[in-house]
Write a structure and sequence with these properties.
Strand content of chain A: 25-35%
CATH superfamily of chain A: Gcn5-related N-acetyltransferase (GNAT)
CATH topology of chain A: Aminopeptidase
Order of helices and strands of chain A: EEHHHEEEHEHEEH
Helix content of chain A: 25-40%
Number of strands of chain A: 8
Oligomer: homohexamer
Largest interface: A-B, 22 and 22 residues
CATH class of chain A: Alpha Beta
CATH architecture of chain A: 3-Layer(aba) Sandwich
Number of domains of chain A: 1
Distance between the termini of chain A: 31 Å
Chain lengths: 186, 186, 186, 186, 186, 186
């Protein structure tokens, strides 16, 4: 029902809800290997029930105002999304993230979508600090953080055990005044 | 973030979430007496905490795919809303409803908003029967049911005890084929 | 332990509790096809665990004063029952219902049993409106409503999807003054 | 609705449910000092909300088949009751108990009521051992145990701290074969 | 991390927590037949998941200050334990118990361990009465009660159904003044 | 009952459980202003009920193997503590922390206590990475991290809103191999 245009190519940002579990799972099937290189999402959405359970978690976060998830559609097909894994309005801190199936890479979709939700978080919800966490090896995710005008706060050494390997996790962030200055500059 | 235009007068339909409890309560303050003539909503949203609790109930319904609530904004002000009090996708049955503060009456806002959500329910969610329940004395609500092309299914005699009086409750409905035929005709 | 005589033929109304799950299931086995023509009860009591779970639901409704279930015994055998699917004492509204295995049909057992529980609801619990819902095709259930002195309030068109078919659901009701007048007349 | 006659004097045993909280509390008001000499029940039913909460606990025990509570009425007035504080059908063990307001003392009401529920537990529910616990100072309760044909199993020395004093608690019991022999003899 | 020496032979008493489920299960494997002669513990710890669930129950009792479990280690191997199955600080009553794998029998380990926890219960937690329950046939458990200076309060006749047989359960106890006198004497 | 010596001065590390709520609160009363300069603990333990609730949270974390809390006693008085705010054994990551009342400062108590629990986490529980988070202004906490041989991973800029001010939070860590090397060197 609701949709926000992400640009002239017809890409749209929409709510992503539990009833869309099948569509979400089908999308994950197309991107499983690619998405699963650095993040656990691919494993959690192993089947339709896992997809529903994952989306329900986010619906409950929305009910508690503690997180949000949105999908990105191009040509009517769900190809990725952005989310606030956590959102602490009292503290003014939120952690954003993203994923994308391979066919949708290279169009700046995630950056465009992240701009929309970060702007909402900062301007409408009073979030002061938006974080971005990514494996140090996940170059495309780190590139998004850079494009969003974020600064690297540090590296959590060997903090993420994933598929048998310990990954360094980089933490990037943008503060509300920096976000506003970035918009001015653009 | 998300909004659907309801027409040239700038009216918009948007998600209505727990974090908007203060705005919802302020709106209810403006419309309390008017809204409270026939429905219990006004009493449930007695204070900001009641507003938050009410919206949280609907956020949980959304998480369970069992109901939805949306607000209507004109000139950036929340003036009313439409909702699916219940939504049973497996059965294909949903019960819609509405409310409006007095200053927003007479512009067809509720009818326009209800059309949007009923169409979504029928066309995207496979709902076969959309119900509308209203006190037999609530003429404006019944007028909306009529404008939506609904048929009166019956009257639940003295079924609603409200503020010390027993009200007859009318049940109206529109079935998916009727809804589609109505669109064709329009 | 407790029992109420339903007449000279030895039929009795008794509480029906979770510990009677096996007896309830065995009764459903005898009546499954017949009972399952119009209502979902037969499917829910598919095995002893389903029987226990169903009866537990009603025990919890009793604990919350939100529903009741009772069995009908003839010659020491459980052959059917009556229930309040819902019971809202604050609103003064309850929905009654019934079921029967085929061997017990034609003796007026359900009508006799329903009279007992409706009279309790009206006279001891202050229920003002007792509802009865049945598929329009379920002639024997509608005949009970008529025998109980109920009035047809309306028809919820195509509101019940059951075994692949959409059923019209009739709503009948009797109000407390009507119930008392009916007793006077009898 | 349900009632079992306890004798020619019109005394009756009936279910005691949460909706009867006010009646239960009024009864406790009449007997509070007397009932409170040896058992904590009087304190738990301090007000109507406490009465409702206590009865709800027993309704939930009934739902779980883990306990039961029943009231004794004389001349239409609730004057006391009997209960299974615990009931473990798998183990075949239940603990019975009782209380009475002073005006109803001396008529054997509790003994008559306890006989009904113990017989149900033994004969219909397969309980092998029915326990009875009472403060060693509570002579009338111990007299009931004796009248029920129970044997003293022992004394839990200083095991019950009540109103600042440590009470010895006597445990009495009757086993199923003893119960049946007792009935034969009577 | 924590450990209390139980004597010169290196035996130690330590907390026993859910993360030790595998070690607990391996110990139970060694002692299953022996331990299972009189108590249900052996059956509950049938596999690692059962061990974890059992230990979690006790971790939750500790969180609610309603029970405790401790293991006995000799030569770095878990060989048995002592516990407070229940602990009611407000009432000042706790029920202690124990178990041991056969290779560790005959060294007084349980008596030594029980002394430590009973002394803590009496002196630091204000427990007035420590109970000990054992099948009348479980001579070694009853011998421990005797060595702890306990008195037999009585016998719950045929109260414990275990593996198809009804066992008499003896109740022993020691009161705080008796405990202190016993220490003085020692 | 359990205690670990922290050195020749008689300081001890012990479990800190809900039943010690009063002692914990009395300690917080002595240290409230000092402890509250940089961490929210002082506000959470505002009264005995808050102390109990806080300790219960940690008892539940222990039950779920997701965190631990321990107290430091000198001369029989609780003066501070160390904790694992989080502990994810599957990931091999835990976050340690500490607090101290002012009279106990300057004796290295926290460093000694932290060494004990970190060593347990690394050597007995398989934790690979122990984190330490502190406000950049909290020099004494950062000095502990340094004394524990930790490395600064980064600074979460303005991430902690406390008493109206946004604090930079430093993240320090030590990895298992570093921990073992540090012990070797000492």
């Amino acid at each position: 029902m609701f949709a926000i245009s992400l640009g002239d190519d017809g890409a749209e940002l929409r709510p992503l809800e539990p009833w869309q579990a099948e569509e979400f799972w089908a999308h994950m099937e197309r991107g499983r290997e690619f998405i699963g290189r650095y993040i656990g999402l691919a494993d959690r959405v192993a089947d339709v029930e896992g997809a529903r359970s994952y989306l329900r978690t986010y619906a409950e976060k929305a009910a508690a105002d503690a997180g949000r998830i949105y999908g990105i559609w191009t040509d009517g097909k769900l190809v990725g999304g952005v989310l606030f894994r956590t959102m602490d309005v009292e503290q003014g801190v939120a952690e954003a993230g993203c994923w994308l199936e391979p066919a949708a890479v290279g169009k700046g979709l995630v950056t465009r979508a992240a701009r929309v939700i970060i702007d909402w978080a900062v301007e409408e919800r009073g979030i002061h600090r938006v974080e971005w966490r990514a494996s140090a090896a996940n170059e495309s995710s780190i590139a998004v953080a850079r494009r969003l005008g974020m600064t690297k706060d540090g590296v959590l050494r060997e903090s993420f055990l994933y598929r048998g390997t310990r990954h360094d996790i980089e933490i990037w962030s943008v503060l509300a005044p920096e976000w506003r200055a970035g918009k001015q500059a653009a």
